[in-house]
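Key result, reporting period 2: structure in, sequence out.
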């Protein structure tokens, strides 16, 4: 039974990876916003509002009214990934609170002889609180992982900066995600998926936007390059529709280990936004995500 738990622990800690992970709590790398997911997850500069809490907390500066965001996807191997975030203007900046949960449902436990020993459940979750002001932001995360009654906890910090150029319609973003001491499960301690991301977003012409990002996974020693575009078919204040597409290239410097296109669309009406995205997972199929955001 112990060997079975250890095996599933390793699988749960790398839900989005098509390689052997060198870090734990890999669920922290899963995107939480369908709009950005359709654009290759290039969110270091493009994320603004409550969705920025998971990409670059400096984007919380754009929270100027109450916001509520809910995102759901049926993740890999029958699991579910859900996120809910609340944004509020506070102290001339923006405050964000978010909860992420990856639920893996019930699993079978088997002994060394292969006999069934019972079932157990597993999940990973994180609670984040962030604040953005004057183009800078910080978020603190409490991370928890559980399998068959065994638990692991960790704390992490995200830092970021974001600002617009004066002479050009370009926004630049820089973020550091998952700064922490690691997470210990059973007798093994793993580093958190520490990353450094730099990106830019630009309004090319009216209704067309472009976003690019380069992210370095420090402990996994790989670089992720992503780009996406958004075309606003309708741009009314009360009704709008957008089409989106993106491309992600993941691998170590000079050597690609996987790439894929993403696409989706969004509808805006009555102060709410409904977004849909299909994103690739190298060697594991694709994931569909839906996000509903409401501003009050």
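The corresponding designed sequence is given below.
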């Amino acid at each position: 039974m112990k060997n079975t738990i250890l095996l599933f622990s390793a699988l749960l800690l790398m839900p989005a990876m098509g390689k052997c992970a060198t870090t734990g709590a890999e669920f922290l790398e899963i995107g939480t916003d369908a709009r950005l997911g359709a654009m290759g997850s290039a969110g270091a500069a493009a994320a603004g509002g409550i969705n920025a809490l998971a990409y670059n907390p400096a984007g919380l500066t754009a929270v100027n009214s109450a916001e509520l965001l809910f995102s759901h996807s049926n993740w890999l191997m029958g699991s579910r990934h859900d996120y809910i975030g609340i944004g509020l203007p506070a102290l001339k900046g923006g405050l964000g609170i978010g909860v992420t949960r990856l639920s893996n449902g019930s699993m079978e436990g088997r002994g060394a002889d292969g006999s069934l020993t019972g079932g157990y459940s597993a999940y990973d979750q994180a609670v984040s609180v962030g604040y953005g002001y004057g183009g800078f932001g910080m978020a603190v995360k409490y991370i928890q992982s559980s399998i068959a009654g065994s638990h692991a906890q960790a704390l992490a910090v995200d830092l970021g900066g974001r600002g617009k150029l004066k002479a050009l319609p370009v926004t630049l973003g820089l973020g550091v995600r998952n700064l922490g001491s690691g997470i210990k499960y059973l007798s093994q301690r793993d580093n958190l998926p520490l990353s450094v991301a730099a990106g830019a977003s630009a309004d090319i012409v009216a209704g067309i936007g472009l976003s690019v990002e380069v992210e370095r996974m420090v402990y996994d020693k790989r670089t992720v390059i992503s780009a996406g575009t958004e075309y606003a078919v309708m741009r009314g204040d009360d009704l709008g529709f957008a089409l989106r597409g993106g491309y992600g290239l993941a691998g170590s410097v000079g050597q690609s280990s996987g790439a894929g296109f993403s696409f989706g669309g969004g509808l805006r009406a009555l102060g709410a936004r409904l977004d849909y995205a299909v994103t690739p997972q190298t060697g594991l199929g694709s994931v569909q995500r839906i996000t509903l955001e409401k501003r009050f």
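Confidence is low (pLDDT under 50) at residues 1-21, 252-258. Residues 2-295 form a domain with the Porin fold (CATH 2.40.160.60). This case is discussed further under Risks and Mitigation.
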